[in-house]
Amino acid sequence: MAGRRGALIVLEGADRAGKSTQARRLVERLRQRGHRADGMRFPERTTEIGKLISSYLEKKSNIEDHTVHLLFSANRWEQVPMMKEMLRSGVTLVVDRYAFSGVAFTSSKENFSMKWCKQPDEGLPKPDLILFLNLSPEAAAARGGFGNEIYETSDFQVKVQKRYQELMEDKSLNWKLVDASQTVDDVLKEITGMSEGIIEDVKDQP
Ligand code: DGP
Ligand code: NA
Ligand code: NA
């Protein structure tokens, strides 16, 4: 059959919502169920750009806010040739954070418009499905507290959550709201069902 491509599935949400755990388990589950699937994460901290970002997040280096926004975007763009190749060859990609994190986090800083924040990521491969793991900032803080990275404060996360709500109003994108306060198994079950639906839908799309 012609044109079988993989699906681009993105997990988004504020810190502590369980994205990384679910992304990993979703790849395992999809594979168990006979799909070709692979995981990716952004920021991808292992590249040269990723190392700069990591050092910024760990508060080891001070990078100007616009500059770091563009580095995050560049860190996504540098993976695009590989992403396109994998999707084209029929592999479904499960991505832990994407451009929406870029907009939600940077636009939570003073004097950044959503419009400015969106521009550098314009043209990235469009996700077929965006799973928003929804957890209130209070519930997130109750999950053993935040780590020590730069954005991990309750005040900032409240702003980020509001930005995500605005982004989810874009009906040209396939956002699905997932209640991340459920058990790990229940969340996995829900997102596996949604993912298998979209894998089936995109199979014969260019
Ligand atoms: P993680 O490794 O998933 O914990 O993500 C690291 C942190 O970086 C997290 O607080 C979210 C934030 N982040 C992810 N992508 C972007 C981005 O494109 N721009 C900004 N400003 N922050 C981002
Ligand atoms: Na984090
Ligand atoms: Na994570």
TrEMBL record:
GO terms for biological process: dTDP biosynthetic process; dTTP biosynthetic process; dUDP biosynthetic process. Keywords: ATP-binding, Kinase, Nucleotide biosynthesis, Nucleotide-binding, Transferase. Gene3D superfamilies: P-loop containing nucleotide triphosphate hydrolases. SUPFAM superfamilies: P-loop containing nucleoside triphosphate hydrolases. Residues 11-191 form the Thymidylate kinase-like domain. GO terms for molecular function: ATP binding; dTMP kinase activity; nucleoside diphosphate kinase activity. InterPro entries: P-loop_NTPase (IPR027417), Thymidylate_kin-like_dom (IPR039430), Thymidylate_kin_CS (IPR018095), Thymidylate_kinase (IPR018094). PROSITE patterns: THYMIDYLATE_KINASE (PS01331). Pathway: Pyrimidine metabolism; dTTP biosynthesis. GO terms for cellular component: cytosol; mitochondrion; nucleus. Its EC number is 2.7.4.9. Transmembrane segments: none annotated. It is an enzyme of class 2 (transferase). It comes from the Eukaryota. It holds the Pfam family Thymidylate_kin. This is Thymidylate kinase. It comes from Leptobrachium leishanense (Leishan spiny toad). The lineage of its organism: Eukaryota, Metazoa, Chordata, Craniata, Vertebrata. The gene is DTYMK.
